[in-house]
């Protein structure tokens, strides 16, 4: 079985967004699986977003933000 290859590269902004989500998870002392559960999503999908392996829909982003109890703008603050 061959590995699936993406047609386009993941943008650096998407990768940075995933890193920021991971930073917030760690700063709040949460576990990835807890956030995934609270966001009503599969933990493996959340890990793909965090690791910059997959882009997310806006609705998914909103679920993650809600699970983290932050605002969307918090994701884009340094």
Molecular structure report:
- The chain is mainly α and about 80 residues long.
- Helix content is about 60%, strand content about 0%.
- The chain contains five helices and no strands.
- α2 crosses α4.
- The termini are far apart.
- The model has no long low-confidence stretch (mean pLDDT about 90).
Helical content, roughly? 55-70%
Structural class, from helix and strand content?
mainly alpha
The number of distinct β-strands equals 0
Instruction: Report the sheet with the most strands, covering strand number, pairing sense and barrel closure.
Output: none
What fraction of the residues are assigned to beta strands by DSSP? under 5%
| Tally of separate helices | 5
Q: Which word captures the global form?
A: globular
The stretches of 5 or more residues where confidence is low (pLDDT under 50) are: none
**Straight-line N-to-C gap:** 42 Å
What radius of gyration results from the CA coordinates?
13 Å
Average of the residue pLDDT scores = 91
Elements, N to C (H/E)? HHHHH
């Amino acid at each position: 079985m061959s590995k699936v290859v993406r047609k386009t590269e993941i943008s650096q902004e998407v990768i940075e967004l995933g890193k920021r989500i991971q930073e917030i998870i760690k700063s709040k002392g949460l576990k990835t699986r807890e956030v995934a559960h609270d966001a009503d999503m599969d933990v493996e999908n959340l890990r793909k977003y965090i690791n910059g392996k997959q882009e997310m829909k806006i609705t998914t982003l909103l679920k993650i933000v809600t699970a983290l109890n932050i605002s969307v703008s918090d994701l884009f603050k340094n």
